[in-house]
Amino acid sequence: MTSEPLLRIAGLSSGYGRVGVLEGVDLEVDAREIVVILGPNGAGKTTLLNSISGVARPTAGTIHFEGRDITGARPEQVVRLGLTHCPEGRQIFQRLTVEENLVAAHIGRAGKSFETLRSEVFELFPVLKERRNGMASRMSGGQQQMLAIGRALMAEPKLLMLDEPSLGLAPKIVHQIFRIILDLSKTGMSILLVEQNVQLALECGDYGYLLNTGRVKLHGPAQEMAEHSALGEHYLGGATEDTIHV
């Protein structure tokens, strides 16, 4: 008998207004697992995360978190349940200091105090402690990405969703971000990672899904995904329409 997944998505269709993006997506994330979502631009990866976090409204299917139906829940409800979204493009508060960004993200859920959470973020990202009183707008791209992740951690997530955390960063910083993702996983946090760096994502992930044209085209253990020829075909074109489970 297997335990219930932390996150279970079944037959999810979603989009924006009359524009459909996702169609019939099935996905699961287990506790303490890193699940990677891959796919070319426009595949529906960001829409999937937005649908889970309540930004986009599903038109069909269900989303269950810890066995609870959260389909169509508002973003503030989703966050309070322990599911936090770190969006593409960082979207930090540029006109606030590092400290003020962390204060704004603390939702006061029953658990750790603000001071404890801030200390954990500063331990994970020492540069944020050094620049705690500095304006977020004056930080480098890598530092802003660290702040975006640190801000998400202030909500004490059980599941952290990261959308393209390596986008636009220097290779050295990218590897640092991925080491932090692995460190977070070791603490027991589950992670749903959207990422264009296929090699690094599959190296750190436990399980992977490939989206294309709003559908899951390939899924399986990360190592087996990395070796499957269909992975490259979906990025380069010419792939079949059938879903492949490796």
What's the CATH architecture name of the domain at 1-82 and 189-246?
A: 3-Layer(aba) Sandwich
Distance between the termini: 22 Å
CATH superfamily of the domain at 1-82 and 189-246: P-loop containing nucleotide triphosphate hydrolases
Structural shape: globular
The pLDDT mean sits at 91
InterPro entries: AAA+_ATPase, ABC_transporter-like_ATP-bd, ABC_transporter-like_CS, BCAA_Transport_ATP-bd_LivF, P-loop_NTPase
Protein name: ABC transporter ATP-binding protein
Family: Belongs to the ABC transporter superfamily.
GO molecular function: ATP binding; ATP hydrolysis activity; branched-chain amino acid transmembrane transporter activity
Outline the structure in words.
There is one protein chain. The chain is of the alpha/beta class and 246 residues long. The chain has a domain at 1-82 and 189-246: Rossmann fold, CATH 3.40.50. 36% of the residues lie in helices and 27% in strands. A 7-stranded mixed sheet has the order 6-7-8-3-9-10-11, sandwiched between helices. The mean pLDDT is 91.
Task: Offer a quick outline of the entry.
The chain is an alpha/beta fold and 246 residues long. The protein contains ten helices and eleven strands.
Keywords:
single chain; 246 residues; alpha/beta; Rossmann fold; seven-stranded mixed sheet; 27% strand; globular
Would you spell out the secondary-structure blueprint of this structure?
Blueprint: E1 7-16, E2 19-29, E3 34-38, H1 45-53, E4 57-65, E5 68-69, H2 75-80, E6 83-86, H3 98-105, H4 114-124, H5 126-130, H6 141-153, E7 159-163, H7 171-186, E8 190-194, H8 198-204, E9 207-212, E10 215-221, H9 222-226, H10 229-236, E11 244-245
Parallel strand pairs: 3-8, 3-9, 6-7, 7-8, 10-11
Antiparallel strand pairs: 1-2, 1-4, 4-5, 9-10
